[in-house]
Amino acid sequence: MTSPATLIGSCHCGKVCYAVHGTIVSVVNCHCGLCRSLSGAAFTSYVVVREADFHVEQGQESIARYAATQKAAKHFCVACGTPIFNTNPIEYPSLAMIYLGTASATAELTPKVNVYFESMLPWAGKVEGIKSFSQAVVRGP
Fold first, then answer.
1. Secondary structure of residue 122 in the 3-state scheme
2. Residues of the chain whose pLDDT is less than 50?
3. Given its phi and psi angles, is residue 54 left (phi above 0), alpha (psi -120 to 50 degrees) or beta?
4. What is the CATH T-level fold of the domain 7-129, as seen in this structure?
5. Which of the two ends of the chain, N or C, has the fewest CB atoms closer than 10 A to its terminal CB?
6. In this predicted model, what pLDDT tens digit does every residue of 49-60 receive, in sequence order?
């Protein structure tokens, strides 16, 4: 996997900033129901890194932890609500799953795999075929 010398990112309001000094383990799209409910999206894209390489550089006091299950925890900014990363020490020991949208290098971090594919919403793999606009356009039926 490609590894920038340093991957940096932050929450929406900028109170929490992080850096990754090390190899990116993977970039994945997760389609499980838990990730959908924690993100409010059809699926979640993550940059998977070693916890030892992941450092909160600013705003540690602004990070809240939510125990989503007995195994998994979501960490997010208390000021703006941005999900920053998830951990699951039982199934994925010593790894952090950083929400791709918080990374500054999102264009270079292309997901290479879909996980929990059986839970993928039927339309999720067909988004390239729908109408696309350069800005928000909302119209009723």
1. coil
2. 1-4
3. beta
4. 2.170.150
5. C
6. 999 999 999 999
